[in-house]
Amino acid sequence: MGPGPGLGLGYFLLPAGGALSLTGVVTGSGTLISLSWIMWVLGLLLLFRSRSRRPVDPAKLAAAAAAGDARAVRGLRALALTARAEGRPDAAERLLRQAVKAGDVESMWELGRLVEQREGPTAAEPWFRMAAEAGHPVAKRMFRPGGALHPDGSDPAP
What we know:
Helix content: over 70%
Number of helices: 8
Order of helices and strands: HHHHHHHH
Structural class: mainly alpha
Strand content: under 5%
Shape: elongated
Largest sheet: none
Radius of gyration: 23 Å
Number of strands: 0
């Protein structure tokens, strides 16, 4: 999954602590200097904590997603989107299919987009239809009269 909330907060606390420290020195405020040290220490701890985490194991995520863990499903989708961005569409498809098995509507949509890029809209239609039937708002619009998969008002299903 992503870097997590600690990494961003750590990068915020370090310069904020530095600014607070400088303000404390300029104004002669011992309280501001003390607060700046707290911010520095917290920032460093958050950065070290986020760097010491192990990479996510897709097999463990898939097992947790199959057991109904919504956070694991989102993790699978995040890994899939990263794989697609890195030019690994086969890995992305495999991860998205696992998330779709767990019922993730957004993964249905993303799998449709991936298949559409590779094979065209006709091949992607079942995934878009599945997402639309599960309530995905953009996928639903594709099947309206005049939509991408319903341009002439006819049913695009084979």
